[in-house]
Amino acid sequence: MMEIQSKNNPLYLDVYNDILNKIDTSVYKPGMVLPSEQDLQKQYNVSRITVRRALSDLVHDGLLERTRGRGTVILPKKNKEDLYELSGFTEDAKRNGDIPTSVIIKLDEIKCPSDIAKFLQIDEHEKVYYLKRLRLINGRISGIFETYISQRFPFKISANDFNEKTSLYDFYKENGVIIADAVETLESIMATPELKREMFIESDMPIFYRARITYDNNSKPIEYSKNYYKANGYKYVVHLHRKNETVSK
């Protein structure tokens, strides 16, 4: 029996930190089932309320997942994305040491919806390529990406151009299109019935939504993407710079 005693931290936080340390040091590895609440209660010599509070916070922070009929499972570490650098899904995953793959749900030429056309700076109902993919990290569902690609560039897209490992940004590069900038909108939304079905989400839960307009080196919009992520799988880091004011003498 391990007795936790801290003069500074509440007991639940000591339990939280000990489990977190075991996750960071791979004592608890992704996919493992955590000991039951009763076993943890005995292990740490604390009340069940204390254990539940620690587990609840770990679930909230995306480190654990409660699975019906199985128990509390250790989740893979969140994929960290740096919002200071423009990169794609495949690049981000590989940088984190993960394996990215995709399932092509739909690839077609469609008339561009009017709300998307204004972002792409094209005529309303002008044709665009529409690419919808289920994105996976290490075989686990990460999200759904819908991408509207302008046809005002010197390349054509067909089903033969994409497979489970294809990076859209690499495709642009191979066709002489240089990605330079992007504008993003980030927000938390509730999953629609369609997204729940496609992402295999069982319960009502918020998901992470990212809309991105990507521009080439001539400031021309290449694509508009609507990306929906499982919120417990991602962490974003934002670099903030404070502008120094000139001190009057």
From TrEMBL:
Residues 9-77 form the HTH gntR-type domain. CDD domains: WHTH_GntR. GO terms for molecular function: DNA binding; DNA-binding transcription factor activity. SMART domains: HTH_GNTR, UTRA. One of its GO terms (biological process) is negative regulation of DNA-templated transcription. It comes from the Bacteria. Pfam families: GntR, UTRA. Keywords: DNA-binding, Transcription, Transcription regulation. InterPro entries: Bact_HTH_transcr_reg, Chorismate_lyase_/UTRA_dom_sf, Tscrpt_reg_HTH_GntR, UTRA, WH-like_DNA-bd_sf, WH_DNA-bd_sf. This is UbiC transcription regulator-associated domain protein. It comes from Solobacterium moorei F0204.
